[in-house]
Amino acid sequence: MISNGAVYKHEFSFSQEEVNKFAEVTGDKNPVHLDAEYASKTMFKRPIMHGMLSASLFSKVFGTLFPGEGTIYLKQTLNFLKPMYVDTTYIAEFTVKEVIAGKHRAVVETLIKDKASSLVCTSGEALVLNTNKI
Amino acid sequence: MISNGAVYKHEFSFSQEEVNKFAEVTGDKNPVHLDAEYASKTMFKRPIMHGMLSASLFSKVFGTLFPGEGTIYLKQTLNFLKPMYVDTTYIAEFTVKEVIAGKHRAVVETLIKDKASSLVCTSGEALVLNTNKI
């Protein structure tokens, strides 16, 4: 069961090879994610991760870890605040803002922070449903 | 250049093999996406696609097609309204709601509709930046 104010943290990083695989499966082959020479001419200077790859971490955690199995994803807002890079350690941080017990739902703040600087790269809020765990 | 009211549509479908690859690269191995026997015991009856895989289509289109190269993703809201299944044709539909020309930004309504029924499976709104095309 999850409760108001509960916090869950999950550390992760992705390699360029994993970013390439994500581009392959989703079809999102924007060169800013894949081509170092192209990216060197943008404001980012080097390839950045797909925002949706980082957002997929929220889905992974909700569906497999917190609250885990049986979770149904209802809503997610995403603010892509800072670029994210490969081979860099990030922390996905979840804070339960509201438990709607009668409906087995919870509103959860979702953040991705750069581990080294603690700066927030992605922020947002999720609404999830789990009939056994909420 | 994109203008107020402009509409762009992009048809797509995913196979179970592609859903499996998405699970592999993101780490989201929620069995509701992967295991037909497990899914048969849920309200969905068969495996459903990851919501974030469908949302990745928005990123693909913004970054490669409409408005295309050079697009930076700033915000996205996502409402996962109906389950989505493999081997089913969907249409991602984009409608420009507001062009903020001075800031090279646009607010775009993003929908995913089941092609056969026209029912909306995923809705939301994006904010994108493109210094050459907006």
Order of helices and strands of chain A: EHHHEEEE
Supply the CATH class of the domain at 7-13 and 49-129 in chain A.
Alpha Beta
Total beta strand runs of chain A? 5
At CATH's second level, what is the architecture of the domain at 7-13 and 49-129 in chain A? Roll
> Overall 3D geometry of chain A?
elongated
- What value does the average pLDDT of chain A take? 95
- Indicate the multimeric state: homodimer
CATH topology of the domain at 7-13 and 49-129 in chain A: Thiol Ester Dehydrase, Chain A
User: What percent of residues of chain A are in strands?
Assistant: 25-35%
Helical run tally of chain A: 3
Q: Kindly, what is the distance between the CA atoms of the first and last residues of chain A, rounded to a whole number of angstroms?
A: 5 Å
- Report the largest inter-chain contact: A-B, 36 and 36 residues
Description:
Two copies of one chain form a homodimer. Chain A has a domain at 7-13 and 49-129: Hotdog Thioesterase (Thiol Ester Dehydrase, Chain A, Roll), CATH 3.10.129. A five-stranded antiparallel β-sheet of chain A has the order 1-3-4-5-2, with helices on one face. Chain A is an alpha+beta fold and 134 residues long. The first copy, chain A, is elongated, with a radius of gyration of 16 Å. In chain A, 22% of the residues lie in helices and 34% in strands. Chain A has three helices and five strands, in the order E-H-H-H-E-E-E-E. In chain A, a hairpin with a 5-residue loop joins strand 4 (105-114) and strand 5. The interface between A and B is large, with 36 and 36 residues.
